[in-house]
Amino acid sequence: MADIKAGWVKVPNGELQIDAYLSEPITDEIVPGVIVIQEIFGVNAHIRDVTERIARQGYRAVAPAIFQRTAPGFEVGYTMDETILGRKHKDLTTADQLLSDIQATIDYLKAMPTVKKTGFGAIGFCFGGHVAYLAAALPDIQATASFYGAGIATMTPGGGNPTITRTVDITGILYAFFGEQDPLIPNEQTEQIAAALQAHKISHQVFRYPAGHGFFCDRRPDYNAQAASEAWNHVRQLFKQL
């Protein structure tokens, strides 16, 4: 496990300055970069913790605030009221803006002399899992971990054809993680995603656990320690391919 340093930075995207949490191993070696994509609750303690965990594995990891346009500094907990507020800002995003922000974050990492210039990773949770699936179609993304991304089979942020229709554009490896008892993602939709990945011959694995939504987050009621541990081991193996 590498010693790390972490803190807030600004990621430029045109006139927009995106708040982002950067975690990196203390080394001058050139290492791969990983984008961490938040849930609807902002770049909160859980997302910062994930970013730091990835850095300890030897990657430079950064979590951009994907609600920067509508809610700078947004960070909430997991109560019903806070969930409603997070969903409000989620509904104000568009796929084009999200992909622009993810690409800007990739470009930020590319500009760092100690980051490998090709083959980036992405990992996202909840709404961020949906956004990670979107981002998997970016040419720079080589390995994607999408955790319980609701709506992939039925919609895309801002409207238009469902995100699943972009599966054909994925060029790297995608691992998808779902809870079989997730009320937000019916098992039929998980099967649709698996079928689309198979049909388009995407290098992938789909992992299903006897768990609910948010099972990876130890701050949420649905946390499942065994599922989270197994999923993390798969993520580690995935990013070793960067």
Verbal overview:
The protein has 242 residues and is an alpha/beta fold. It has one domain: Rossmann fold, CATH 3.40.50.1820. The protein contains 6 helices and 8 strands, in the order βββαβααβαββαβα. The protein has helices at residues 45-56, 80-90, 95-110, 127-135, 187-199, 225-239, and strands spanning 4-13, 16-25, 33-37, 60-64, 120-125, 141-147, 173-179, 203-209. It has an 8-stranded mixed β-sheet with strand order 1-2-4-3-5-6-7-8, sandwiched between helices. Strand 3 (33-37), helix 1 (45-56) and strand 4 form a beta-alpha-beta unit. The longest helix is centred in the middle third of the chain and has 16 residues, at 95-110. The protein is globular and about 45 Å long. The mean pLDDT is 97.
Brief account:
This protein has helices at 45-56, 80-90, 95-110, 127-135, 187-199, 225-239, and strands spanning 4-13, 16-25, 33-37, 60-64, 120-125, 141-147, 173-179, 203-209. It is an alpha/beta fold and 242 residues long. The relative contact order is 0.13.
**Ends: how far apart?**
18 Å
Count of β-strands: 8
Category from helices, strands and their pairing: alpha/beta
Share in helix: 25-40%
CATH fold field value: Rossmann fold
Entry keywords:
242 residues; alpha/beta; Rossmann fold; eight-stranded mixed sheet; 8 strands; 31% helix
Secondary-structure blueprint of this entry?
Elements: E1 4-13, E2 16-25, E3 33-37, H1 45-56, E4 60-64, H2 80-90, H3 95-110, E5 120-125, H4 127-135, E6 141-147, E7 173-179, H5 187-199, E8 203-209, H6 225-239
Parallel strand pairs: 3-4, 3-5, 5-6, 6-7, 7-8
Antiparallel strand pairs: 1-2, 2-4
